[in-house]
Amino acid sequence: MTKADIVNLLFEKVGLPKSETQDIVEVIFDSLKNTLVAGESVKISGFGTFNVRKKSARIGRNPKTKEEVEITPRKVVTFKASDQLKEAIEKV
Description:
By secondary structure, the protein is α+β, with helices and mostly antiparallel strands. The chain is built from 3 helices and 5 strands; from the N terminus they run ααβββββα. A hairpin with a 6-residue loop joins β3 and β4.
């Protein structure tokens, strides 16, 4: 599913003009992104939680050359599905 698919689905369900629907979707995603950039978590009830996690530097290995390479510290986004989402996926 793409952002455009979400806009079309919301347009069909709610009936707002497509431009307004697109603006709403953009505001939601911008809010989520800005919250994660600030280092805060985003919890969507019944769906799951997005967190920003810091990964420290470590030594990795290039699988092709077997050469050791230092992997720099970085931040990654993680997602933990809610129990309701897990149950809904299991039912399918």
